[in-house]
Structure formats: C-alpha cells, structure tokens
C-alpha cells in the first residue's frame, strides 16, 4: 500500500517507479525505541522534495520536437533560487527593451544602430539559453541512497579499495563529489551552488554556467557602450530626433542601463575569470577552499572535460551537449 500511495504522489511515471523502489529497497531498518513506526516516512518525503524531475516531452511532442532529454528535466525547488533566476530574466528583458525602444528605434536610426541591436539580441538570447540549460541540467547528482551492500558490490572493487558514504543522503560518494545542502544530493565535481541559476554548478552543467557568465559579461559591456554613446549623442544634438521618448525619461532609462551594465559586467567578468581559472587548473571552487591536493590533468584536457571533445564551435553553443572522453569517468577508489 505504501508503494502505491507514494507512486500516486509522484505522478506515477516510470522514472519515479524506479526511484521509489530504489529508495524503499535501500532504506535501512530504523530503531524506534518504543515510538510509533509511522514516523519513519517523514524524513524520506522531506528529502525527496528538494529536486523534482519535470517532463517537458508532453508539451513539445505536439510541436514535433522529440528529444529524450526533455522527458527528465532537473529542477531545484528552492524559492530563493527561483526568485533570483526570474530576477535575472527580468534584468535581461529590461536591457533588451531599453536597447530596442530607446537606443535603436528613433527618428534618425541608421544601419549601425540596427547592427548593434541585432548583435545585442543574439548575445542576450545565447545568455538566456545558457541560463535555462545551466538551471535545468542535472549537474551530476549521485543516485540517492545507493550506499547499500548490493550497490557497493556492483562497483567490483578490488581488495584494499575503499568507498566513501555520504551520511546526509546515504549515497556512495565518488571522488571529487560534494554534498549540496540546497539540492540535498551529492554532486559530482561540485563547484558551488549558484542561486542566480538556481542550481549547483557541477560536472554536467559547468559549460552552460561558464557560457552564461561569458554572454552576460558581453551584453553588459555592449549595453554600457551603447547607453553612454547614445547619451553623448543626444546631448550633442540637443535631444532632437535621438529618442522616441522625452529627454527626462530617456535619461532615467539610460542611467539604469548604465548602472546595470556596470554592476553585472564587473560581477560576471570576475565570475567568468574565476571559472576559467578553475577549469584550466582542474580544480573546483570547493577544492580550492579546502586546499585538497590531487593529481591534475593538463590545461587542454581539463578544458575538454568541461566543454567536450574535440574543440569546435559547439564549445560556444548552449544548445550542444558536450561529449566527454572515456578517461573523464568518475572513479570511486581513494
Ligand atoms: Zn550527499
Ligand atoms: Zn545544489
């Protein structure tokens, strides 16, 4: 009965059937010390609520888009992260609106205005796509509760090899994995949990996060340049035929855009530099903080381990999923 009840609760999908059975078979007996045994259900339900898997295939199938990846889309149910992610989209939309209606479309618009507008819109679309992929990609979560006798036996360890078990999510902790208290899961090659993308940055989504910081940095600098040059142009023309709005309104919108461009240009520029340094040195943010010493790959191999193999234009595309080398697999021995 317990299985059927929980299956109903989790929308009755095949994935959840597998996950629920896995959790039930791997749950260790609990000593109740005379208290009601019904209490054992509570912690399991609380833990499973931090991350949900959404099924977008039902929405996209009528449009002719059949992508198996859309059947299982990772989403972190963290209210702070969701607010930050929506705020990020609103900031991008504000910049797009000002660029279009204040800077590009006015009485004396020329070819260079349209060109600048198109480049800005292309980069902001790539930033938005990178953000969505960084947010909805499983960062490399280790299956929950797999640290059972059968699970450890299936690794085929040799004599003397040891495995770590996470005491918080009862999973076998691979080398370089860390437990995230927001996702409530162990994440392979975890760098940090970023509220701006409402997800952990880990083995599977670091490429999208790096691209997100890169494209946001590019559009911030571009917006800064366009806003300042447009303001100078308006002043030199004595505010005649340079904007479809009144001079005070134009000034307010441009000042906000300059402020936004400066703030996020500096922030994402530093973030991009930190991320690229971490990628090149093959060391995650957590490893840098803990000063963990380990064998490191060469700069080029570690770039390929994040952006995919081999080098191509796809490194810059948030739509292409990176292909990893066989040597990038995670091992368990310590
Ligand atoms: Zn864990
Ligand atoms: Zn996390």
Q: What's the short version?
A:
The chain is mainly α and 334 residues long. It contains eleven helices and eight strands.
Query: How would you spell out the order of helices and strands?
Result: HHHEHEHHHEEEEEEHHHH
Radius of gyration: 24 Å
How does the overall form come out from the CA principal axes? elongated
Query: How does the helix and strand content classify structurally?
Result: mainly alpha
Biggest sheet strand line-up: 1-2
Number of domains: 2
Distance between the termini: 41 Å
**Total strand count, please?**
8
Helix content: 40-55%
Could you characterize the architecture of this molecule?
With 334 residues, this protein is mainly α. It folds into two domains: 1-49, no CATH class; 52-142 and 197-328, no CATH class. Helix content is 51%, strand content 7%. It is built from eleven helices and eight strands. It has helices at residues 2-9, 14-26, 41-48, 57-60, 79-104, 111-136, 149-153, 206-236, 247-280, 285-290, 299-307, and strands spanning 51-54, 73-76, 164-165, 172-173, 178-180, 185-187, 192-194, 199-201. The strands form four sheets. The chain has a two-stranded antiparallel ribbon with strand order 1-2. A hairpin with a 4-residue loop joins strand 5 and strand 6. The longest helix is centred in the C-terminal third of the chain and has 34 residues, at 247-280. It is elongated. The protein binds zinc ion (2 copies). One zinc ion (ZN) is lined by residues 166, 168-169, 171, 179, 186. The chain crosses the membrane at residues 79-106, 118-136, 208-232, 252-272. Its EC number is 2.3.1.225.
């Amino acid at each position: 009965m317990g299985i059927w009840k929980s299956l109903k609760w989790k929308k009755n999908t095949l994935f959840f059937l597998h996950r629920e059975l896995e959790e039930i078979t791997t749950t260790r007996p609990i000593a109740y010390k005379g208290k009601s045994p019904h209490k054992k259900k509570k912690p399991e339900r609380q833990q499973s609520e931090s991350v949900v898997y959404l099924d977008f295939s039902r929405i996209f199938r009528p449009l002719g888009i059949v992508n198996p990846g859309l059947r299982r889309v990772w989403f972190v149910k963290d209210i702070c992260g969701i607010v930050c992610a929506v705020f990020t989209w609103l900031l991008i939309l504000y910049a797009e609106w000002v660029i279009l209606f204040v800077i590009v479309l006015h009485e004396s618009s020329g070819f260079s205005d349209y060109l600048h507008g198109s480049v800005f819109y292309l980069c902001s679309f790539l930033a938005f796509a990178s953000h969505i992929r960084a947010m909805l990609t499983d960062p490399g979560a280790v299956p929950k509760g797999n640290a059972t006798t059968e699970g450890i036996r299936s690794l085929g360890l040799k004599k003397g090899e040891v495995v770590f078990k996470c005491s918080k999510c009862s999973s076998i902790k691979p080398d370089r994995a860390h437990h995230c208290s927001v996702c409530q899961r162990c994440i392979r090659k975890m760098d940090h949990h970023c509220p701006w993308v409402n997800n952990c940055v880990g083995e599977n989504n670091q490429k999208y996060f790096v691209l997100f910081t890169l494209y946001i940095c590019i559009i911030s600098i571009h917006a800064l340049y366009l806003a300042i040059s447009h303001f100078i142009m308006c002043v030199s023309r004595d505010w005649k035929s340079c904007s479809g709005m009144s001079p005070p309104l134009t000034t307010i919108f441009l000042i906000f855009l300059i402020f936004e461009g400066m703030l996020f240009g500096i922030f994402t520029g530093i973030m991009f530099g930190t991320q690229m340094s971490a990628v090149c040195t093959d060391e995650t943010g957590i490893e840098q903080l803990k000063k963990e010493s380990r064998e490191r790959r060469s700069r080029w191999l570690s770039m390929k381990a994040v952006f995919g193999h081999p080098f191509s234009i796809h490194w810059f595309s948030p739509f292409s999923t990176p292909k990893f080398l066989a040597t990038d697999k995670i091992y368990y021995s310590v």
